[in-house]
């Protein structure tokens, strides 16, 4: 059987840890594998996207994102609608997309998926023409993403600390949400349009999201009281988030949300300033991904 021609793109600081040792381990493991492998280390989103595009243009079979959801997004956006598949070695702070696809975290196990796994066609999404593969969210979600992006530290402890610090300060915002002919207005803590099921660290907000059904799920949440937070968090960890009475779920191929003011949108963990009107749409079967059989 022909070897898969693979480019590994490494984000050296994803997850807040430098990856010099990882690159050496990857080079040794890839040399011994059944993969025809090349490795490149990138240090900026534009550089990552360019490397992925060049690999797709050069007909690589797989481009592997070695990083978190932000790195995966950069690479996946350049592989969409091409024959080149996305591979993943999870190395981020939350790894929501990799967890949703059940990609293993140990290097040898992740490489085994790349060697022997099957290529599946999955959906993606866009918001105002910005590509996402996992979740695009507004409100408290995006507020924390902005704070986390500017933090000197990464990891779950930093994220949790920011949530606890900002929770009482954050004021819900009025959203006008439209899907098809259905229009609702909500005073919301956050709203997230989901292709994947979780933010990361197994915090699952859309347990029934299916990346192969040609649909997106919109999860809208009222602000909990401090006494309601533990149950809401437990529901997310138990994959029962949609059963909480603070949570509303909508499903569709597209959504439009109008908010009171411009602000951040959390796109696969990366905050981006956008306008008042946000238009979300699914891109069916947009991306080929190497997963477990």
CATH T-level fold name of the largest domain: Tumour Suppressor Smad4
Main beta sheet strand tally, sense and closure: 6 strands, antiparallel
CATH architecture of the largest domain: Sandwich
Unreliable runs: none
Order of adjacent strands in the largest pleated sheet: 6-5-16-13-8-9
Radius of gyration: 19 Å
Oligomer: single chain
Quick rundown:
The protein is α+β, with helices and mostly antiparallel strands and 293 residues long.
Chart the SSEs and their pairings.
Elements: E1 4-10, H1 20-31, E2 35-41, H2 45-57, E3 62-67, H3 69-79, E4 85-90, H4 96-100, H5 107-116, E5 118-127, E6 130-132, E7 135-139, H6 140-149, H7 156-166, E8 173-179, E9 182-188, E10 190-194, E11 216-221, H8 229-237, E12 247-252, E13 254-259, E14 263-267, E15 270-274, E16 277-291
Parallel strand pairs: 1-2, 1-3, 3-4
Antiparallel strand pairs: 5-6, 5-16, 7-10, 7-14, 8-9, 8-13, 10-11, 11-12, 13-16, 14-15
Structural description of this entry:
The chain has 293 residues and is of the alpha+beta class. It contains 8 helices and 16 strands. The strands form 3 sheets. A 6-stranded antiparallel beta sheet has the order 6-5-16-13-8-9. It has a 6-stranded antiparallel beta sheet with strand order 12-11-10-7-14-15, with helices on one face. A hairpin with a 2-residue loop joins strand 14 (263-267) and strand 15. The protein is globular, with a radius of gyration of 19 Å. The two termini are 17 Å apart. The model has no long low-confidence stretch (mean pLDDT 93).
């Amino acid at each position: 059987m022909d070897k898969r021609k693979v480019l590994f793109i490494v984000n050296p600081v994803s997850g807040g840890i430098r990856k010099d040792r990882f690159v050496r381990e990857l080079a040794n493991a890839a040399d011994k594998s059944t993969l025809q492998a090349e490795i490149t280390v990138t240090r900026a989103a534009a550089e990552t996207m360019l490397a992925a595009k060049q690999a797709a243009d050069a007909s690589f079979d797989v481009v592997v994102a070695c990083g978190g959801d932000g790195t995966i997004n950069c690479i996946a956006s350049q592989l969409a609608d091409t024959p080149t598949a996305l591979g993943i070695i999870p190395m981020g702070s939350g790894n929501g997309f990799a967890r949703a696809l059940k990609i293993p975290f140990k290097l040898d196990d992740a490489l085994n998926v790349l060697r022997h796994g099957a290529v599946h066609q999955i959906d993606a999404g866009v918001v105002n023409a910005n590509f996402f593969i996992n979740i695009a969210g507004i409100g408290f979600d995006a507020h924390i993403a902005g704070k986390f992006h500017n933090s000197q530290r990464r990891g779950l402890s930093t994220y949790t600390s920011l949530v606890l610090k900002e929770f009482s300060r954050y004021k819900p915002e009025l959203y006008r949400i439209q899907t098809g002919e259905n229009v609702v207005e909500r005073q919301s803590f956050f709203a997230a349009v989901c292709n994947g099921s979780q933010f990361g660290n197994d915090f699952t907000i859309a347990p029934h999201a299916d990346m192969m059904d040609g649909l997106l799920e919109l999860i809208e949440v009222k602000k909990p009281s401090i006494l309601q937070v533990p149950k809401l968090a437990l529901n997310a960890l138990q994959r029962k988030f949609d059963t909480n009475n603070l949570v509303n779920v909508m499903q569709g191929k597209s959504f439009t949300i109008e908010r009171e003011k411009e602000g951040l949108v959390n796109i696969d963990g990366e905050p981006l300033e956008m306008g008042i009107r946000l238009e979300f749409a699914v891109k069916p079967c947009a991306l080929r991904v190497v997963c477990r059989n």
